[in-house]
Specification:
260 residues; alpha/beta; 9-stranded mixed beta sheet; two-stranded antiparallel sheet; 11 strands
């Protein structure tokens, strides 16, 4: 089975005091560390596991600068066979533009299955995977929490609203966007890092893909990025239960939640 995994390098923002850049279009990333997008980590692990079981190849693909090759090297160390970095130059693309670029690069490559993360940690968008599938004319499913190989198909479980799961079959070739918890991503070993250094990493320039300006034009315009306004802290209510209940009812009436 030939599998392609789309991955992204994102800033690590947990336990960090974020600041907005001077243009109010992004967070200030100058001092932030970068990691592989969490959802993509599970996607590459799923691909390597399928390869170990069924044979075939795993190709990791990312859109980014030379610094973003860090996540591709990690994928190679986890077991991917080759990697492709698409260099965007000075272009800044929205989700639709990224999907068009990925579809143009992935289309000619052998692929039975394409895996992406459900969403990206930096912009919280979850559109690239499904858009890419539509552009390539592939069967697709989102928020996949488990998958099992079958004859020309996969048996998958998807997370739906309200705590409900759906179990179904999807024919190959297909694209799946996977949820965290799908598996337990492996640690990268020293041997894996050494092997990764010898595996091919190809760089493709976006300008060489033959895409028209209209295809890359953003469909969404980011107007402003801002931190949420600070609100007051929690109010602690003390006293006997009857007094606490009386105060709570008063608050609910004041907020218009309870009227009688």
């Amino acid at each position: 089975m030939d599998i392609i995994v789309c991955v992204k390098r994102v800033p690590f923002t947990q336990e960090v005091d974020l600041e907005i850049d001077p243009e109010n279009k992004d967070i200030d990333r100058e001092e932030l560390a970068y990691v592989i997008n969490d959802w993509d980590h599970y996607a590459i692990e799923a691909a390597v596991k399928l390869q170990e079981e069924l044979g075939g190849t795993v190709t990791a693909v990312t859109l980014g600068t030379e610094e973003d090759e860090e996540v591709l090297r990690r994928c190679l160390a986890m077991g991917a066979d080759r990697a492709v970095r698409i260099d965007p130059g000075e272009r800044r693309l929205d989700g639709a533009g990224v999907a068009r670029v990925l579809a143009r690069v992935i289309g000619p490559l052998p692929h039975d299955l394409i895996l992406t993360g459900v969403q990206a940690e930096d912009d919280n968008q979850g559109v690239v995977g499904i858009m890419t599938a539509e552009l390539l004319g592939l069967n697709h499913a989102a928020v996949v929490t488990s998958l099992e190989p079958g004859a020309g198909e996969l048996i998958i479980r998807c997370e739906l609203e309200g705590g409900v799961d759906e179990r179904s079959k999807i024919g190959l070739p297909a694209l799946l966007s996977v949820q965290t918890g799908l598996n337990e991503p492996r640690y990268v070993s020293i041997m894996g890092i050494k092997k990764a250094a010898k595996k091919p990493l190809e760089v493709v320039a976006l300008d060489d893909l033959g895409l028209e300006e209209a295809e890359l034009a953003p469909r969404t315009i980011l107007e402003e990025v801002f931190l949420p306004p600070e609100t007051g802290g929690a109010e602690m209510i003390s006293g006997d239960p009857a007094r606490i209940a009386e105060i709570l009812l008063g608050i609910l009436k004041e907020k218009g939640v309870w009227a009688s």
